[in-house]
Amino acid sequence: xxxxxxxxxxxxxxxxxxxxxxxxxxxxxxxxxxxxxxxxxxxxxxxxxxxxxxxxxxxxxxxxxxxxxxxxxxxxxxxxxxxxxxxxxxxxxxxxxxxxxxxxxxxxxxxxxxxxxxxxxxxxxxxxxxxxxxxxxxxxxxxxxxxxxxxxxxxxxxxxxxxxxxxxxxxxxxxxxxxxxxxxxxxxxxxxxxxxxxxxxxxxxxxxxxxxxxxxxxxxxxxxxxxxxxxxxxxxxxxxxxxxxxxxxxxxx
Length: 253
Ligand code: NDP
What we know:
Blueprint: E1 9-13, H1 18-29, E2 33-38, H2 41-53, E3 58-62, H3 68-82, E4 87-90, H4 105-136, E5 142-147, H5 160-179, E6 185-192, H6 205-215, H7 223-234, E7 244-247
Parallel strand pairs: 1-2, 1-4, 2-3, 4-5, 5-6, 6-7
Helix pairs in contact: 1-2, 1-7, 3-4, 4-5
């Protein structure tokens, strides 16, 4: 049967787990062919099998997008394997919580290089192809969806540099949105609250325990809940542009 994203190609960064994996599966269900980008190839293969099982099409692109050349190649590989690019979901991100006093600059650099630099490199490579897709596809529109965070709206202790990356992402998103208006490339940001993913796995035991205590009693969002928001944005008719969606867990302050 006909699906809203039939014929479209989506690239999802960070598609090996959490929000990215759920989004890739969801966009495939909406009819898109999906390029799966992350470092863990085995996990991407699993997501690709899930998509094939749904009758969809996926391309596995194992890449560390913090290497600028790999970020650019990820976009080119998508074009080579799936033929076009209609939807870019910039989802890959890392959150290394720690008060500034106890952080290393290496932790800060890792967040900047993935949440900011890698996102910019992928986006820069993708935009010309998105413009072309918008002007040639039956949808007559293309999309960039950036995954921000409530930490990009509200700053808290322990997340100074993570908040820097996500507050900054909102500014980048809004400026790019205005720049691409005439090209019919929509640019928006989804800002999830607490989501049950592997994001906290990268924290030290003590920092993770403290973070878990802060969110104890809150029923976390599921990755599928965020995939739902992203799917809503990219399946709208071209006359509709959803610029921003803040999606908190029901019990979250
Ligand atoms: P996960 O840790 O489950 O997912 C992160 C993804 O990023 C993984 O697929 C990981 O794959 C990928 N990634 C990490 N480093 C690289 C790299 N160098 N190159 C390519 N891919 C990379 O966490 P989430 O699903 O929660 O995170 C997704 C996004 O959601 C992030 O931007 C995060 O900031 C945001 N977010 C999450 C919230 C939450 O509560 N979970 C709340 C608000 C926002 P691999 O390791 O295989 O490379």
